[in-house]
């Protein structure tokens, strides 16, 4: 894939991990059980000489499959033409995006210019998203929710599963959505209850009426990558569109831990200045409430 025009939508595809691709490339003749959707289900691939026959009858050249793999964590789409890594490149943004599976048969993450968009130490990307979503479920369940940074759509899917709907999921970068559109674990992003909004977050918030959302789930890249998404001006806009009693979860992470910088402290201060109450630390971030 290269830079994407338009709004991508999910499409069925056979996608395997680099580890699975190597197994298929090296297996002896005969049936081989493997996952062709990054661990969601199991299928049978028939190995014969230089080719592997997929469940739909298409064949894949095993030498080409082996050549497509650089690392076991790669994600390879078995396209009709030839196997290829799931990636995108934007010359305009100077960004390289790829689907990356840190744990076999578990949901992948997206890597942008070498940085993973989920915490993957001791947990998989879905578990990372679930831990964050759990922070807003206890104080507030149900209602319209704004998911500010869609990514692969795990957060939006989990928010719907826990009772929020509709979930308006923003993603300004079409290349991220292009990668999600090939990811088997992102299928639910284009399902009932989720509105994918391929626009700039600030424009969406500016166009929204007052008290539009019961919940805002703000999971931006790090402050170094997207400092404008940590600004008091945006927090004031959040306060305007959040309904009284509504909850805001703000992911912060620990980008300054090694140098002794506490970015969450600054986030708390700016949220309070923007009018939020009961602002406190939560899992990997900050939780705040709008009282009036």
Question: What would your notes on this structure say?
Answer:
With about 290 residues, the protein is an alpha+beta fold. It has a domain at about 125-290: Rossmann fold, CATH 3.40.50. It has helices at about 20-25, 60-70, 125-135, 155-160, 175-180, 200-205, 230-240, 265-275; strands spanning about 15, 30-35, 45-50, 50-55, 60, 75-80, 85, 85-90, 95-100, 110, 115, 145, 165-170, 195, 215-220, 240-250, 275-280, 285-290. The strands form four sheets. It has a seven-stranded mixed β-sheet, sandwiched between helices. A four-stranded antiparallel β-sheet has the order 2-3-4-5. A hairpin with a 2-residue loop joins strand 3 (about 45-50) and strand 4 (about 50-55). It starts with 14 loop residues before the first strand and ends with a strand. The mean pLDDT is about 90.
Mean pLDDT: 92
Oligomer: single chain
Alpha carbon gap, first and last residue? 47 Å
Sequence stretches where pLDDT stays below 50 over 5 or more residues:
none
Rg estimate, integer Å: 21 Å
**How many DSSP H or I helices?**
8
Sketch the topology as an H/E string, one letter per element. Answer: EHEEEEHEEEEEEHEHEHEHEHEHEE
The proportion of strand residues reads 25-35%
Helix content: 10-25%
The name CATH uses for the topology of the domain at 125-289 is: Rossmann fold
Total beta-strand segments: 18
Structural class of the secondary structure composition? Answer: alpha+beta
Under the CATH scheme, the architecture of the domain at 125-289 is 3-Layer(aba) Sandwich
Arrangement of strands in the largest sheet: 14-13-12-15-16-18-17
| Assigned CATH class of the domain at 125-289 | Alpha Beta
Shape: elongated
CATH H level of the domain at 125-289: which superfamily? Vaccinia Virus protein VP39
User: How would you characterize the largest beta sheet?
Assistant: 7 strands, mixed
